[in-house]
Design a protein that fits this description.
single chain, about 400 residues, TIM Barrel, two-stranded antiparallel sheet, 19 helices, binds flavin mononucleotide
Length: about 400
Amino acid sequence: MSNLSERLKHYPAVVDLQKRAKKRLPRVAWEYLDMGTDNDVALDLNREALNKIKFMPKFMLGNIQPDLSTTVFGREYKLPFGVAPVGLTGLMWPRVELILAQSAAKYQYPYTLSMVATQTPEAVGAVVGDMGWFQLYPPRSPLMRSDILQRAKDSGFHTLVVTADIPAPSGRQRSVRAGLTMPPKITPRFVWQGMINPAWTIATLREGLPSLRTLEKYSANGSMKEISDFVAKELGGTLDWTYLKEVRDLWDGPMVVKGIMHPSDAVKCLEIGADGVQVSNHGGRQLDGAPAAIDMLPIIVNEVGDKMTITFDSGIRTGLDVIRAYALGADFVFAGRAFISAVGAFGESGGDHVTEILKTEMRNDMANIGVASIEEIKAMRENDFFFE
Ligand SMILES: Cc1cc2nc3c(=O)[nH]c(=O)nc-3n(C[C@H](O)[C@H](O)[C@H](O)COP(=O)(O)O)c2cc1C
């Protein structure tokens, strides 16, 4: 298919991109991307809860031209959604971080690079411009921690996201069933999955098997096996309030704590000097008994929303979902799977494709609801929307 506008006619929504990505990715990569945890209850709940939020439209407002720009931590973004951090990204599609960072720079919205992504802060920093946020999993070694933070800063990342919600591993049954091992190994099953997905295989052969490149320098020989052992040993169960305060003191820009679901944790984050919390249940990937993240959003906004920035992710698939999160009080909204699926579906042009979808959906839905700006969405009250 020749150009983006043609492709948008055939793949006009994120669900279309997900369907196409599912066909093009080896099963092991698709399952890793799409799965929740255990029985996928929390994964499904995120969607069900978002779908329950309904708007009462207001009419007779003439020609509404919605303005999608918004400001967070004193920085203006032209679009009000960004890319959440995703690890082992190159398993889904090679160079996915660079592709999405380029779209973020072009359209001016944030791209969050995961510390366990498959491209380094140096490589992504070179293309993301001033749209880079960096996500840290807490390393046990203080030296490694300060070195990684320094690398992120030197590469131009200005906002730090510290992920709190992985104190222990979670059930990754779907990817285990599909044959994912850490590190990814070339088994006969993997070769077969590669053969029946030639576009992925050709792109991957060109780029080499994915590796957690940011971490290579801290492990003795940099091999994927060594890095996986190292991640298990160095990153698990390290985070507590003292640690978080240390990170706060090391980072001189805005710091957001990601994965906050309990209002009392949000209050403590505020007390140790965090600038924001990201309400998220990790896209339903960690605790199958977690509530939908969107249900916790207004509770946390009510608790600390007037004192700190509240960002949100988990379940966002449409422009309407982005509006829903702003209506419930978010200051910024992120998505993970929607962006990665887009690159799985269309490679290099996937980032622009999904951006156009979300942008168009937001413009249409805002006009249909009767709001012209993000501020107007945030100013909505009980009379303007309800939960079914
Ligand atoms: C494949 C995959 C890998 C992820 N890796 C990370 C990660 O490295 N760090 C992190 O903080 N969150 C990670 N997340 C969680 C996302 O940042 C985000 O919370 C989640 O994807 C939001 O839900 P959504 O995919 O429904 O938009 C990952 C999510 C997925 C789907």
